[in-house]
Amino acid sequence: MLLNTQRWLPLTLLPFLLLPVLAHEHHDTISDEDLNKPIDSILYMHMGLQALVWGVIFPVAGMVFGIVRHRLHVPLQILGFVLTIGGYILGHSHGGRAFPASIHGRTASLLYFPIALQFGLGVYLKLHIHEGTYFRKIAVKAHGIVGASYPILGWVQMLFGALTLGGYCHGGHLGQCLAHYIMGSSFIGYGVLMTLILVVGRGWVPGSSYSPEWWDSWVITLWKFSSIRAVNTFTEHRGAHWSHKDMQHTSLGVLWWAGGILGIWTSRKRQRSVVPAIIVMITGWAMSAHTQATETSTKIHTTFGVTLMSAGLVRLIEVGFGFVFPPSEGEDTLDRTSTIRPFQHLPPFLLVAAGLLFMSATDEELEFIDKVGMDHVTYTLIMFSWAFFIYFYVNVLVYLYTNTGRNAGSEKPSEGYYKLVANGSRHASDEAGRDSLHDGTIFEMSTVVDDDAEEIK
């Protein structure tokens, strides 16, 4: 059997090796006529097909169904492989509007390396060879990591596609695009992680004895110190003259990593902390007063700031007062805290909305909506509509994780939700548990994530 496998396994990888040959050439110099031609039906098919694969099939089949060992993981994943190859060919076979060489096209070719890697690892694991070996354990982990990266890879590539379609982020606009799209995506990612902590706990996060705010503070400090806000703090200003934007960007960088350090200190030993929420609120206030070159841009930034302030405020209320209400008569204290309250969905949703608003507030995008006669209200409503849809989709993925495959029919749906316990003990009495609820400081999380199986059945 192994000999036969060695013969046909290279054939399964042949489509991935032929893809560069099928690609048509992009040129750096294209006439204005070709740049302004209408989009043909083949390119629309390419966009729709790849959005289906990378937005739905891979996140559901490649990530969620793979984690829960769902029986549809393999067939749907194979379907995704086939469709994305077809989408790649369509993207290089269209007529109509022409596009210069872009990061979207270059990334499309690079994406087939993780696809081929996961496909090859999946075939290897299905053959059940090298059972019990260290190499097989590494293959299982690598297969899962690649599958879990699909939503991020798909998000990035779809953004690149939208920017290429609009002709954005060239020349002097690149720096602004990087700032808006990286930071906006970070806010969305923050909201997604907050949703995961809220619904399924932190089973895959090491050191679960730490509070969520401890992790929040570390993310705030390291992210702002090592990436965009570190750039703002130390290198955002160029030249001898300091504009008001230079000063604001630099001071925001200092705010985030200095406030993050305070958040780490105040949330140690499983203490709840309001510092991350306050940082988000102050950032929202600063952005709401961030004067822009046009009226539309100023109003969009103001809306973004207000949304961010709201996210910080509701997070502060959740941390400070979310669990202080006394339990109803006959209600067990610890069971009560396993229930997600509707109010707790507000912080992650508002972070998603704020992220979309910030991503949509570049000069080129706002110049476009001015050209088509759209006002800031309509534009904001469109962004909030997308925020509702994205947050809905995130919750659908989380639901599929908790209710399908090996997690189907679980009799303990509350596992993984917040559980406050007195003095860190799971066996505290109701009286002590109620005291800890009022203290609102010490808690522990359980998990719904079983230890990963070493083999894929």
From TrEMBL:
**Keyword field contains Membrane:** yes
Describe the location of the Protein YTP1-like C-terminal domain by residue ranges.
Answer: 154-401
**Do you know which Pfam families this protein is assigned to?**
DUF2427 (PF10348), Ytp1 (PF10355)
The answer to keyword Disulfide bond applying to this record is: no
Keyword set for this entry? Membrane, Signal, Transmembrane, Transmembrane helix
- Which first-to-last residue range defines the signal peptide? 1-23
In this chain the DUF2427 domain maps to 34-128
Q: Where are the transmembrane segments?
A: 47-67, 74-90, 110-127, 148-166, 178-200, 274-292, 304-325, 346-362, 382-402
Q: Which PANTHER family match?
A: INTEGRAL MEMBRANE PROTEIN (AFU_ORTHOLOGUE AFUA_6G12730)-RELATED (PTHR31685), PROTEIN YTP1 (PTHR31685:SF2)
From the Swiss-Prot or TrEMBL record, give the protein name. Answer: Protein YTP1-like C-terminal domain-containing protein
